[in-house]
Amino acid sequence: MKKLLSLIFTLSLAWLINPASAAPPQAYDETADAKAAVSQALAEARKVDKKVLVIFGANWCKDCLELDKSMHGKNEALLASKFITVKVNVGQFDKNKELVDLYGNPTKKGIPAAVLLRPDNSVLYASKGGELSNARKMSEQGVYDFFDEITALYR
């Protein structure tokens, strides 16, 4: 019993000293250089002849987290076959504003928001009406269908 208590105390102390190591990974990297990430995705898209899907969101946003979750699992391979995806953290709508503005302010009616780009950085589609702001109510298939339809419409 003493050993167990000692182990619990040691682990608790280690967590208090370095709590960041216990934090789960975040869907939207708050330290990322978003402009560089988009530039890198555009360069990759030119090489592999794909479109770039930019998702604007934040870690506090439940719909953003649900969209992120829906883009993984069975949808991950399907989406990866069509897009190079970049997630851009918008914080409290105070981060990466220059990218948001560059693509026509797709976050105006809510996040998550999406922009579909050609490899030359021209905009094929930008959500303007909060189309994804109810991602919690979309199924994984609904998320895939949304992006599949956009791809079909904007070739």
UniProtKB/TrEMBL annotation:
Transferase keyword on record: no
Is this entry keyworded Signal? yes
Keyword terms, alphabetized: Signal
The record, for SUPFAM superfamilies, names: Thioredoxin-like
Q: Domain of life of the organism in this record?
A: Bacteria
Q: Which residue positions does the secretion signal occupy?
A: 1-22
For this protein, the record's InterPro entries field holds: Thioredoxin-like_sf, Thioredoxin_domain
**Protein name per the record:** Thioredoxin family protein
Q: Which organism is it from?
A: Undibacterium umbellatum
